Amino acid sequence: MYRIGEAEVARVRKLIESGRMFRYGKGGECDRFERDWGKHVGVPYVRMTRSGTGALYTALVGLGVGPGDQVVVPSYTYMATALAVVGAGAIPVIADVDESLTLSAKDLERRITPHTRAVIPVHMVGLPCDMKGIMRVARRHKLLVLEDACQAVGGGYAGKKLGAIGHAGAFSFNFFKNITCGEGGAVVSKSRAVFDRASVAIDCCSYYWNPEEQREDLQFAGHNFRASEFEGAILNAQLRRLEGILQRMRGHKKELLQVGEEAGLKSIRNNSLDFECGTHLGFIFGTEPEAREFSLRLGEREVGSFLPMDTGRHVYTRWDPIMRRQGAHHAALDPFKLAANRKCRIKYSHDMCQDSLDILNRSVLISMHPDNKRARLREMGKAIEAAAAA
Ligand SMILES: Cc1ncc(COP(=O)(O)O)c(C=O)c1O
Questions:
Q1: CA triple 179-129-378, angle to 5 deg
Q2: pLDDT at 226 over 90
Q3: Which ligand 1 atom is the nearest neighbour of the CA of 173?
C-alpha cells in the first residue's frame, strides 16, 4: 500500500450512507471500476474478484484450462500462481527465470510437451516479462497466455499495459499491491467468451444477475469470488492515484540505477524500463556472498533490500503443496491423482530450476516508495555507492 486517505474515506462514507453495498442491480462502484480499469489496461472485459488468486483461478476457468493440461509457470512467483493451476485441475510445470527475474522464453520453450496448454508469465516485483519472446513461443506452440500482473498493477511493456498482451490477465489489489482495497483482484480479457466463463466462476449466479445472458454453455457450477461495492469504491479512488505513484517510483528508480551503474554495479535485465512499475531497483552479482554483503552494507546505512531467494513462498522450492503433490483437500479431486492427468503429471525436485536458484541467490532488490523525497534519494544513492565500493 503506497497511498490511501480522505478520497477513499469519502467514497466509502457515501456508499455506507447509500446503504447499497451489493454490486448488482444499480450500476455502482464495481461497474465503474471495471469500466475504468478496462480503459486503463486497454481491454474491453473486466470482472472484479476477491483476490489475485481468485482472478488467476477464474481466468484459467475462463480459458478452458483443466485436467489433461499442463500450464507452465515461472520458478519465481508467489505460489498462488501454481496453486491456481492445480485449482483448475491442471498440472503446473515450473520453468526457469532469467536475469530479468521473470520467465525465460527460452526455458519456456524447452519445457513444452504435447500436453502444454497454457503459460502464465508473471510480472514479478513490478518487472515486465519478455512478452515479445514469450508470445512468439506461445504462437509457435498454440499456447494460451495468462499474464499474472498481480505484482505489477499499472505497469506496461513496450507501450502496452501488462495484462492486456496475452489472452487474459489477472490482478491483485491486496494490501501490498500498487493500488489496494485491502483484498481484491480482477480478471481482464479481450475475449468475450473467456470473460463469460470467468464470470460464472467468479459468481455462480452471474447469469442470473444478467438474465438476458442466460446461456446453456455457461450453466456450470461456479463459486463466489464476487466483489462488494466497498472494494469498488476504494479502488475507484485508488485508481486516480496510480499513474502518479508509478511515475514517481519509475523516476526514482532510474536515478538510483544510474548511481549504481556508475559505481560499477550490474543491473538486473529489464525488459521494458520505460513502462515497468519502478517499484524495485535490482542489481545482480557474480556470487551469492557478494550479493549478501551488498545487502548487508545497505542495511547498515538504513536502506532496506532483500535477495529474491529469501522471499519465502515466492520461490518454487518453498511451494510445499506443489512440491509434495498435495493438490486438493480430497484425494478424488487431486489433479496429481486424477486419471485425466496420468500422462501429464511430472516429478518436482529442488534442483529442477537450478539456473533460477543461482540467479535469485545473486540478486538484490531495493524497494522504491513514491513518498521518498530528494534528501532520502540522496541518502539511498550514497548508501548504494558505499555498499558497491565495499
Ligand atoms: C505474483 C502473484 N500472483 C498472485 C498473487 C495472489 O494475489 P492475492 O494475494 O490477492 O490472492 C500474488 C499475491 O501476492 C502475487 O504476488
A1: 60
A2: yes
A3: 10
Burial of 209 (0-12, 13-18, 19+ CB in 10 A): middle
Cα 51 to ligand 1 centre (Å): 7
CA distance 242 to 253: 16
Report, as an integer, the average pLDDT of 167-185.
Answer: 98
Tally of CA atoms within 13 A in the half-sphere of 381 that contains its CB: 17
Ligand 1 proximal residues by C-beta, below 6 Å: 51-53, 56, 77-78, 80-81, 122, 148, 150-151, 172, 174, 185
Classify domain 6-237 at the CATH topology level.
Answer: Aspartate Aminotransferase; domain 2 (3.40.640)
Confidence band (pLDDT; 50, 70, 90) for 312? confident
> Which residues have C-beta within 8 Å of that of residue 289, sequence separation ≥ 6?
none
Pairing assessment for the beta strands 116-119 and 168-172 based on DSSP bridges: unpaired
Residues 369 and 249 sit within 8 Å (Cβ to Cβ) = yes
Structural domain boundaries in the chain: 6-237
Give the span between the Cα atoms of 302 and 165, in whole angstroms.
38
Separation CA 151–CA 292 (nearest Å)? 24
